[in-house]
Amino acid sequence: MRVSVVAGNWKMHGSVSFLEEFASDLAGALAHAGPNSGSVAPELLIFPAAPHLALARSMLPPEVAIGAQNIHAETQGAFTGELSAEMLDDMGIGWVLVGHSERRALFGETNADTAAKVQAAERAGVAAVLCVGETIDERRAGRAAEVVLAQLNAVLDVAGLGWLERGMVAYEPVWAIGTGETATPDQAQEMHGVIRQALAGRDADLASKVRLLYGGSVNPENAAELFGQVDIDGGLVGGAALVVEKFVAIARAVG
Ligand code: PGA
Known about the structure:
Structural class: alpha/beta
Largest sheet: 8 strands, parallel, barrel
Distance between the termini: 13 Å
CATH class: Alpha Beta
Number of helices: 11
Bound molecules: 2-phosphoglycolic acid
CATH superfamily: Aldolase class I
Order of helices and strands: EHEHEHEHHEHHEHHEHEH
Mean pLDDT: 95
Number of domains: 1
């Protein structure tokens, strides 16, 4: 039985006052759920913007894990504006997103870059959530699985499988991110199945345990059906994760 995960990617949003309010509302919602109510059963994970990492760690309830949205592959050095996995680990930040489609499309991140970043995260003991997903043109051309597998295999060929002991893969079709257009549960399950099968080809036991997240316009209305699919173990949520009621409602849809 895989414990589900609901992760919130705040992107370049938030402020100190937003964090204070979110933290207090989330703590209230979790307390309200009660210890054995089962109302909020999944693991919760928040990816705030870099300047808010330490604040989020100190303000959000301790059972909520915190992650960065990006890292540089090097440990330290003359890389102005960047942050390393070692810095995250040093600050008690245990997670990092790697290869989000916005990093790939807007900042030129290649499959080779994502592989190096996953390796860097593992080196520092930080768990990576590797994001993969096809564009609408690639889907229309019937190339969705090919593209996603190329993104996945580029990392596995270089970084191996060890990082997946804690790490996860998030399938996020680019056409569904921030658009309000969600993959249907069947479309999402099909791609999650492709990903799990590819992992099973390398290590069947690991593949059966790895959590695979779906991302792309997840909201309280569509979460339960998506998360009900056999290979979908939770969600990576953008817009809806900025509203604590929606984030909690999505978490409840899993639990
Ligand atoms: P969205 O973003 O939920 O707003 O579509 C998801 C993501 O980018 O991780």
